[in-house]
Amino acid sequence: MVTTRPPAAVSPAEDKPKGRRPLTRRQQENRAGLIYLSPTLIVVLVVVVLPILWTVMLAFQRIRLINLRRAGFFGEYTLANLELVLTSPGFWSSLWTTLAYTIGSTFFSILFGLIAALALRGRFRGRTMVRASVLLPYVAPVVAVTFVWEIMLSPQFGIANNWGTRFLGWDRPIAFLSQREYEVSLFGWQFDVPLALLTVIAFEAWRYFPFAFLFLLARLQAVPHDLEEAALVDGAAPTQIFRHILLPQLGPVIALLTVLRFIMTFNKFDDVYLLTGGGAGTEVVSVRVYQFLTARFDIGAASAQALVLAAGLVVLLVVYLKFMAPRVEGEEEN
Amino acid sequence: MDRAAVETRVFGVLRRVVIAVLVVVTLFPFLYMLLLSLRPIEEVLQNPGKLWVGPAEWTISTYREVLTPAGGGGQGFLRFLANSALVSIAATALTLLVSIPGAYAVSRLRFVGRRQVHFLFLSVYLFPSILLAIPLFVLFTRLGLRGSLAGLTIVYIAQTVPVSIYMLRNYLATIPVSLEEAAAVDGYSRLQTIRKVILPLAAPAVMANALYVFMIAWNEFLFALLFLVEDRNDWTVSLGLAQLSGGIEVSKTVLMAGSVVLTLPIVILFFAAERLLTEGLTAGADKG
Known about the structure:
With 334 residues, chain A is mainly alpha-helical. Chain A has 14 helices and 2 strands. Chain A folds into 2 domains: 25-87 and 296-334, no CATH class; 90-287, MetI-like fold (Orthogonal Bundle).
């Protein structure tokens, strides 16, 4: 039986445009998207975004742990904290230390990661095991690896100093982690090196080169084989293949890694804190924040110090993105 | 010989050297940790340069000291292990619960502000965790969450959700949309589609993700230090070990035994699922 419905019954919504329409597909999708993402948004807002905003406010109030209860949104705002932080002894030197530590660690971790990725690219027996063990420094807990390094480098019973004095002819044990300057003579030149800082950088390079290795290896394995084979047929040397075929392909990943490692190292706290406690010329800004917080209970000053750190990072990143790596931004679009 | 032949030979040798150096450099500290933890402290102090001693001289007294409860004169690491496991497993489960729908939304659904979400995520990493630590310290003190494992778990979720969503999103992008359309034709709702079609297909990425979150939570130190330090019963293994090193009468070999106890679960997990993790972490990175 075929019936034709009266036109009015087809879509009641069209008759009354002011009434509640059923949601269109697009609106439904919009709502579902927001609902699915809302737990994430809530957690990130509460535990990350609000605290950041609150830090900004704390940085401009005179607050110590004792009068924390009275701290509110309408406290007295003042620039005293910023002034205290910017003029306190050791502020600028700790900023330079942070910068040197960050640049050194970023550079060497990516360089070693690249060397490792190139060496472990081809097939050989036991490659899976070697690849897994190379990743160990990155996945192992910080606390455990910093302790092993501390003990290995210890002047009293560390294996590095023991072997150094026995086999390498060192005159006396070297206090790698607690000596600020170390005098080196090279070809008759005498100069000081910041020993503890270099040791910390070496530790960072050791711990984070697997991170760079992981990303670079993944990219290397995606380089089309015929490109390299064509170059081989043409008699290209390995360095030429690297320079003209591999490096251009790796460029964007290296740029991305530079940004990631720079951000993460700049903000790093645990590694330096656990290795040296910030002593011997390794006081990076995040360790300073911790000391303001726990030794002086000065929450205002600690917040101001942390804010200066974040501001410095933002400035450096903007400069980097603007002038050094125009390709990184395009990366995000895929 | 021409340049290509010379270089090929040189780099062939160099490659073997590099591989050998890499293996030694990465594995040696862990081997040293293990060997030191098995030796009596007097013997280590006499022969600091000696690496290998026969199994006859090995001792497990260091491990006994680390694992015995604090009441029994030990360091009570069993309790810390339980705390760490609890926090890490809870953080892993909750992070996945939050990030799977989130990743699905970001990769599949068009909604207002979808393009802006990345900026929010970036803020998690742009600001140092020490900066978050101050207000969270204040906030959690007020809420009474400081000094509780639940508070710590919440922080770990916030720290890992963005990366987790990013990893999952890249994987979801490789699953054809036509499968979902077929499921819709069969009358599945969106949630049913996620549970019965998407999740089974994305299982490798979800596993890799779970491992990643577990590792971050297990290894974390700063927030554990700030939030839990007051009550020994709440310490995680990382915190317990760090506090152990401050003790004067604790010998270095005991410290190494503690380090082994802290590292071993992660290493076992890692070797069990290495391939899964490396592929999951870098999914999408090779698109260049």
